[in-house]
């Protein structure tokens, strides 16, 4: 038979379990290191009829760092960087194919927002600034039709606008979802035609229109780390003509689908 003392002790134990496990506070400070692998598809479209012009398909792998913090007033800050290397295969409507082209990529962003806490989820709208750099190194490589490649550099500046949704931890495990629209501010493409011949000039094109989309879903196994699936997508419009008025960079899209394993520290 239960006494009042035993009932009080049992009630305290049950309430303690739920307060720690099922209804734990949201995680307010996160630092993560991740390794990732992804598939990548880059396509260019014809500027007149929007038909297929060329594509590059392959893989990317690299490392990523992320920090997220909420202060006492739920003000949110985030800093994210990603560094990757990969190889892609080239297919063109007119210049044949080429394999094993190296891709080097860096991306970094910072954002701030405000967390809105509910009973079981926290939603955080945010805005920030980001930078993306890509080097596609096909210089000195030759296609199946005898055409030579050349290195290409891309630089984007953009404004990330998005939101996070996090669930409260249950036994230290929880989900996090992120959706982000990237407002394209400015881009620049440099094509090193001098790789083909010193008689050719290097070309720089300004890019002023485009957009990006980033989606991700995370599962935190516990305080030590977890798993993330993600998609990064870019759609960049035709560039302006270069300074000579003869060359432009056609509309292009990039789709990256990947998987990350991350550790908290």
Short recap of the structure:
The chain is mostly beta strands and 265 residues long.
Report on the architecture of this protein.
- With 265 residues, this protein is mainly beta.
- The chain has one domain (4-264): OPCA outer membrane adhesin/invasin (Lipocalin, Beta Barrel), CATH 2.40.128.
- The chain contains one helix and twelve strands.
- A ten-stranded antiparallel β-barrel has the order 1-2-3-4-6-7-8-10-11-12.
- A hairpin with a 2-residue loop joins strand 10 (210-222) and strand 11 (225-236).
- The protein is elongated, with a radius of gyration of 24 Å.
Topology:
Elements: H1 4-22, E1 29-45, E2 52-70, E3 75-92, E4 97-114, E5 116-117, E6 121-137, E7 152-167, E8 174-191, E9 203-207, E10 210-222, E11 225-236, E12 252-264
């Amino acid at each position: 038979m239960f006494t009042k003392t035993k009932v009080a002790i049992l009630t305290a134990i049950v309430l303690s379990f739920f307060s720690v496990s099922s209804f734990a506070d949201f995680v307010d400070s996160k630092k993560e290191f991740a390794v990732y692998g992804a598939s990548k598809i880059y396509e260019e479209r014809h500027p007149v009829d929007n038909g297929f012009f060329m594509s590059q398909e392959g893989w990317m792998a690299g490392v990523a760092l992320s920090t997220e913090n909420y202060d006492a007033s739920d003000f949110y800050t985030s800093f994210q960087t990603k560094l990757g290397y990969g190889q892609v295969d080239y297919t063109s409507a007119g210049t044949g194919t080429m394999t094993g082209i190296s891709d080097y990529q860096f991306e970094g962003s910072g954002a701030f927002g405000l967390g809105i806490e509910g009973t079981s989820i926290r939603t955080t709208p945010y805005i920030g600034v980001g930078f993306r750099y890509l080097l596609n190194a096909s210089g000195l490589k030759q296609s199946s039709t005898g055409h030579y490649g050349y290195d290409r550099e891309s630089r984007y500046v953009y404004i990330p606008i998005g939101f996070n949704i996090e669930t409260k931890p249950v036994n230290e495990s929880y989900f996090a979802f992120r959706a982000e629209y990237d407002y394209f501010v400015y881009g620049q493409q440099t094509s090193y035609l001098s790789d083909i011949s010193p008689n050719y000039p290097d070309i720089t094109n300004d890019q002023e229109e485009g957009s990006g989309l980033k989606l991700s879903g995370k599962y935190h196994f516990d305080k030590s780390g977890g798993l993330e699936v993600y998609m990064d997508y870019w759609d960049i419009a035709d560039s302006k003509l270069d300074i000579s008025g003869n060359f432009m960079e056609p509309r292009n899209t990039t789709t990256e689908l990947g998987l990350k394993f991350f550790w908290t520290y």
